[in-house]
Amino acid sequence: YALAIAYASLQPFGEWLAPVPGTPFWAFAPWSMRATRFDIVANVLAYLPLGFFVALLPSRATPALRAAVAALAGIALSVAMETLQWFLPARSAGTIDLVANAAGALVGGLAGALYAPSRLRGAMRRVRGRAVLPGATGDVGLALLAVWLVAQTNPAIAPFALTFDPAPIPLSDPDPAAVDTAAALIEAAESAFQLVGVGLFAALLARDRRYAGGAVLLAVGAALLIKGVAAFLLLKPAAFESWLSYGVLLGIAAGALLLLPAILLPRPAQVTICAIALLSSLLVPLFVPDVLQAAAPLTLFSWRYGHLLNFNDLTRSILVAWPLAAALWLFALAGQPGWGLAGAGPDGRDPL
Fold this sequence. Notes:
Oligomer: single chain
Number of helices: 13
Strand content: under 5%
Order of helices and strands: HHHHHHHHHHHHH
Low-confidence stretches: 340-352
Radius of gyration: 23 Å
Number of strands: 0
């Protein structure tokens, strides 16, 4: 999460310029106390999860210490980001941002301090222990799936797609002949591969194969719900009408049909198919170079704050990098024949 904050804070990572000689340090500059209400709220919310996660790191600590460590971590990261933004003409560094970031980290730290010793955390651990692969393998897999779900909050990118299509053919188009068959097939292949890959990834996270189907339905359903709510809230009505296209629906239907028999295969076969599907979803957009470079414009959205530019770039980068990270996790999983199942035999192999 700290890496995500750094990415969003420093993007576009170019045109670094040293401040003009005699310019006061950003914390003491007169413009550092200027900020809009939206900036303050956004900075508080951005650092709130960071404080929550940091507060959970100490194995044994008092609530006050957890909250203090979280606040200090937020302040340290914010000072580093604001100082680096001082050298980016396209970004602005300010004391108000630092205070808002520190406040967000502190609030998140207090929430984490209350959650750490609570019964809710114990219950969550028991559910996680029964349903998900144990150890670091399960933890990393859950984290990867959570990151992918968070990236679905970008409504400009179609469901189970990795890139933004600047010219989709909407379902409302009255002329079916206007559909570009090649473009629709490429879009369908990208969505189908991604759906199969993500679905099998969720199935492989299940500790017991009996939970695989539920894991797939939960992951796919959560992704569609997040994407649909984000599209309804953030996209303009005209853009929302073209959100689903022929290619996307065709890909989702094909991916669902392929996923149904795939979750019944032996797990080594699932690992292989999952890796191939995810990497294929990453290779398909290479056939359309224009799509790889396309970024969703602010005119699509019902609000035009500049933060959307960073949000678009961050989520798009996550979606493109995710298949590679997931493939590495699958290779690590393939080296554990028992898959962490409770019913594994003495040799560590999965009897199912």
